[in-house]
Amino acid sequence: MLETAGTAEENLPVELPPENRELPVSAFAEVWGYLLSGRENAFRGGMPLTDIGYFGAEIDMYGKLVDVPNPRNVRNFGGRLHMVAACNGRALSHFVLAEGSPERRTLIADLLRAAENFDGLQIDFENIPPRDGRAFLSFLAELRSGLSGKLFTIALPARTRPVNADVYDYVKIKPLVDRILVMAYDEHWSGSRPGPIASMGWCRRVAEYSLETIGREKLIMGLPFYGRAWGHISPSRAYLYSGIQTIIDENNVSDIHRENGIPSFDYDVTVSVKVYYEDDYSLSARMEMYRSMGIRAAGFWRIGQEIPSVWNLIRLDIDNDG
What we know:
alpha/beta, single chain, about 325 residues, 8-stranded parallel β-barrel
């Protein structure tokens, strides 16, 4: 659930460093990177990472855990490797979280068994219906109690303030996990108006709220490596006959032909495209903002999407591990 833009005061721009100066190296006690199964070659030894969230495990339509990645495929990584389990469907989330159901018991057992081969387990359920908030909390509590000392973490959507009946309530979830990755990206998404994936002012407000509710010991601030493009029109859709006729009239279509009896035509339009993305300057400015706020851990979605020079701007700071 994304929040609407705030007041003019909330959206004041962050003061940014000059673009012509050498970019600083940002230090964090923990640096997390997310890696997709099948794209392990995007990871290179020497990247300043303490933790990798390894993607691929999902919940299928029957509530079973599937596509668990093989940790041996990242055996050249010397840090902590976490299995990330994702579930993005509302109906499926409701189905597997139902308290007392055999599907939930089986899923928890499967998650705990699969996590035995990793250093930790991360839950990334991004579309839970509001009525299932209590079931989600008890689900997390059961997982934590069965993990036998392994690191238990969760990825949660960004918030700048409390949300009514919030399934992803930071305060309620904090005692049940060891770390919370706040996904401070997708401020604007494919279906929204064009805008930054993570504007500086919005990120600052997300970080302030996260520090207040989660605290620096458990907080990982997520940063995006990707960009998005928006076009002012998208012709890929279904049309009524009247809509097709409007296209014909507005674009002066004269060559209508039949393909095996079906009418068809072609026409060209100019599309205005707006793009927002991340480079080493924007990532550095965001990292330095977080570092100056006392944030000790950063996480990047995802390895392989980045400008390569960003790794020269990150270092591990073991003295910041408190």
